[in-house]
Write a structure and sequence with these properties.
Elements (H helix, E strand, L loop, with lengths): L7 E3 L15 H8 L2 E5 L7 H13 L5 E4 L1 H7 L5 E9 L10 E8 L11 E9 L11 H17 L23 E5 L10 H7 L4 E4 L1 H9 L5 E7 L9 E8 L5 E8 L10 H7 L1
Helix pairs in contact: 2-4
């Protein structure tokens, strides 16, 4: 069994699995396309994630038939190789000096393996640190769901792209950002480059400082002129490890930039000056 970005354990369980990186086979993608996808909901019925993922799936999931299930049902069903699952997972990276726990949205195939990390992984996208409120990412989930489907179709049609650092493929499009409006939350920009004047020294193209509601509206309207930042960081909490920076088209649901850095005194929790330089 192989996994595309195998880093995971169910957040619904009490343990966190440490995992290595593997690469899926093209056959795993073909198998997925013939399955029904079971979307695993959190045990807390009032979970903001539950409301967001249900709405996103009902609005946008077209690639396979789907059903919603509980974590207990997942445990009963996950050994069935004819099924696939969309789950929120808790992840730790063993190679990192500070092992923070992150939430990922993952699509996996059913398998009779003992460990969740041995289930073939089709696509996984970071959502946020496990310690930050869900509303730091739930307003963007529909775009991430749409991206996941597009990504699966791309690697099905282009199996040569399947590799451990598969998201690096999207960095070839980073210069296209200049042709659209770049929308950012002020809090998602590194404090050393947070003003528009400082941004324009590094990125002389259209930038707008917006709100979460603005981004959610652009995603709902599929605004083709907007690229927004999906930043995964500690949001002021004590654990400071990785900061993921992903630029996503609100209309086409493509990644235009994917990178991360380890947070330090020099590199803060946000989009850095050097990130702006890379996309200009």
């Amino acid at each position: 069994m192989r996994k595309l970005v195998a880093l995971f354990c169910l957040i619904l369980l009490t343990t966190v699995t440490y995992a290595d990186r593997y690469v899926a086979r093209h056959q795993d993608i073909k198998t997925f396309l013939g399955t029904t996808t079971y979307v695993v909901l959190e045990d807390n019925p009032m979970s903001e994630y539950n409301f967001a993922i249900k709405k996103a799936i009902e609005n946008s999931w077209k690639i396979t038939p789907y059903e919603f299930i509980t974590s207990a049902q997942f445990e009963e069903m996950r050994g069935d190789i004819s099924k696939s699952f969309l789950v929120r997972l808790a992840v730790k990276f063993t190679g990192d000096k500070l092992e923070a726990t992150y939430h990922f949205m993952s699509v996996v195939l059913g398998s009779g393996v003992k460990r969740h990390t041995d289930m073939p992984d089709i696509v996984s996208v970071p959502l946020g640190y496990s310690t930050v409120p869900e509303d730091s990412y739930t307003y963007k989930i529909e775009s991430l769901v749409r991206f996941a489907q597009n990504h699966i179709r791309i690697i099905d049609e282009n199996p040569d792209l399947i590799k451990a650092n598969i998201f690096q493929h999207y960095n070839k499009q980073r210069k296209e950002t200049r042709n659209k409006e770049l929308w950012l939350l002020e809090s998602d920009i590194d404090k050393n480059v947070r003003s528009l004047a400082a941004i324009r020294k590094n990125y002389p193209h259209t930038v707008k400082i917006v709100t979460k509601d603005d981004i959610e509206k652009a995603i709902a309207e599929r605004n083709e002129n907007v690229i927004f930042l999906h930043k995964v960081g500690p949001e002021g909490t004590r654990l400071q490890a990785r900061c993921y920076k992903i630029l996503i088209g609100a209309g086409d649901d493509q990644f235009y930039y994917f990178d991360y850095h380890m947070i330090s005194k020099k590199n803060g929790d946000g989009f850095l000056a050097k990130d702006f330089k890379k996309i200009k």
